[in-house]
Specification:
The complex is a heterodimer of chains A (249) and B (264). Chain A is α/β, with parallel strands linked by helices and 249 residues long. Chain A contains nine helices and ten strands. In chain A, strand 1 and strand 2 form a beta hairpin. The model of chain A has no long low-confidence stretch (mean pLDDT 91). Classes of the chains: A alpha/beta (249), B mainly alpha (264).
């Protein structure tokens, strides 16, 4: 049996007495795409930060690719990457310079060739010499993706990857993820507020509310259990306590 | 090898910033040169009015250049770290395979580069302007330079730890903190000038040993190994302590979630 990509057990984190993540447990199968959903302040970013090792949990365990993320994160980080519109790359560096620096940090062999490949794949060739701070939102997203793809990650963590993108660019980005996932068999975990995106990309959905994991299942499974036509309605049912699942998971 | 590559990447990131902005590079050399010019004329004036200065040509110029080594050493570390915070890049760095101690090593490496770019031109400029070459000190100059830079590193790491823990509101510490040590460092006067009760405090600081040693060399007494040993021992202690504090605060930052929510 294939080892799960991510195993989280009884994870808990609070800030100054305020509970941000409250005793959550879940498993993410290798090669799957999972969405972490929830309203603002539900605990999604805190959870992703703990999965990345950016944040230490108060209690509980996180195993990524079989390794304890609290104690041995550096064994895993070369096989992991993430992208978030809220964490930027240095503005004064050009796109090529940014990718070169991160390529060295990840120890990418034949780096120039890899950057050229990514530039071609992500349509960055024309902007390689432009400073990262002078790019449009769509261009910044593509550059952040290039950085996230440099090491061909086995696990890709994405925090609202299509936030602030126009529908055309957002659709292109989703297609890119699908394509990468199909070709590489990578595991993707994304936090998103875009339910159409989640329905299109994800095999599994984890619903968070006030730090707790309140429901989970495949998009079809959740639609069936809540008796809804789209995930947005399911999301609102959970967020507003409007309706309990018709069928328990 | 991979650690060296990662440290090199941290330095490369800052070298790219410097390559892309010649005013920044110019500014690095500007203040030390202005400082040296100012003190050069002051020194020329004093040499005709003070027998102590007259006997030891260049003592004030040497002191101001070496003080800038310590000041730039500190700024080189602190600015490299704050640059990551200003550009909100700490999150990306912290989820890359870069270890905190490698980030620290990269910052120290950049401090060496920034200090050399900043202070070397001032030292060279003093030769045609005042017919004084700090390089005439020979090997002791290298020893003093390294010791003062390491002292600057200790302060820079302490400032970086403060900025990481308390945010960019603490960034002025990079410029302020080092000047609190200046009166006790005996840059322009012997430590014996200080009141007796302050002298033990001064001797607890590495720069006091270095500047005292510099005066010994410039007065023709040769390198005082006792003073040098004191400076090296204290520097090892302070830079070790400051590095440990930085790593500890980095760990605290992981506990408090400070690595993501940083920036202007």
């Amino acid at each position: 049996m294939t080892q799960p990509a991510i195993v989280v057990d009884n994870l808990r984190k609070s800030f100054s007495g305020q509970v941000a993540v409250d005793d959550i447990s879940f498993t993410i199968a290798a090669g799957s795409t999972t969405a972490l959903l929830g309203g603002n302040g539900a605990g999604k970013t805190t959870t992703i930060s703990m999965l990345l090792g950016l944040l230490l949990p108060d209690s509980g365990t996180i195993r990524v690719l079989g390794e304890d993320m609290v104690r041995h994160r550096y064994r895993v980080l070369p096989r992991l990457n993430f992208s978030s519109p809220y964490v930027e790359l240095p503005h004064r560096l050009t796109v090529a310079e940014n990718l070169t620096v991160y390529g060295h940090l990840y120890g990418i062999p034949r780096l120039k060739q890899r950057i050229a490949e990514l530039a071609c794949e992500l349509e960055l060739t024309d902007i390689l010499k432009r400073p990262a701070g002078k790019l449009s939102a769509g261009q910044k997203t593509r550059v952040a993706l290039a950085k996230a793809m440099l090491n061909r990650p086995d696990i890709l963590l994405l925090d609202e990857p299509t936030a602030s993108l126009d529908p055309d660019t957002a659709d292109w980005v989703r297609g890119f993820f699908q394509d990468y996932q199909r070709k590489s068999g990578a595991t993707i975990l994304l936090a998103s507020h875009n339910m159409a995106e989640v329905e299109r990309l994800c095999d599994q959905v984890l619903m968070m509310k006030q730090g707790k994991l309140v429901d989970r299942g495949s998009p079809q499974d959740l639609l069936g259990r809540y008796g809804r036509d789209d995930l947005e309605q399911v999301f609102l049912d959970i967020a507003r306590d409007r309706r309990q699942p018709l069928v328990e998971s | 090898m991979s650690a060296a590559r990662r440290i090199g990447a941290v330095m490369l990131r800052h070298l790219y910033v410097m390559r892309g902005s010649w005013p920044r590079v110019l500014e690095m050399a500007y203040w030390p040169a202005i400082n040296m010019t100012l003190w050069g004329f002051t020194s020329q004036f004093f040499s005709t009015h003070s027998s102590w200065v007259a006997q030891t040509g260049g003592i004030l110029i040497g002191a101001v250049i070496l003080w800038d080594v310590m000041f730039r050493g500190n700024l080189g570390v602190a600015l490299s770290f704050m640059e990551e915070m200003w550009s909100r890049n700490l999150g990306h760095l912290s989820v890359s395979p870069l270890r905190p101690h490698e980030l620290m090593a990269g910052m120290l490496g950049m401090s060496l580069v920034r200090t050399t770019i900043g202070v070397l031109p001032a030292g060279l400029l003093a030769i045609p302007l005042y017919h004084y070459s700090i390089f005439d000190m020979g090997l002791p100059l290298l020893v003093f330079w390294l010791n003062l830079m390491v002292s600057g590193w200790a302060i820079g790491l302490g400032v970086s730890a403060l900025v990481l823990r308390f945010g960019l509101g603490a960034e002025s510490m990079a410029w302020v903190m080092i000047f609190a040590l200046a009166p006790l460092s005996g840059i322009y006067y012997p430590i014996s000038t200080l009141p007796a009760w302050l002298q033990p405090l001064a001797w607890a600081l590495p720069p006091a040993h270095v500047f005292e040693g510099m005066r010994q060399v410039m007065q023709g007494n040769g390198l005082d190994w006792g003073l040098l040993g004191g400076a090296v021992g204290l520097n090892v202690f302070y830079v070790g302590a400051a590095g440990s504090v930085f790593l500890y605060v980095h760990h605290v930052a992981r506990r408090r979630g400070l690595l993501l929510n940083v920036g202007e």
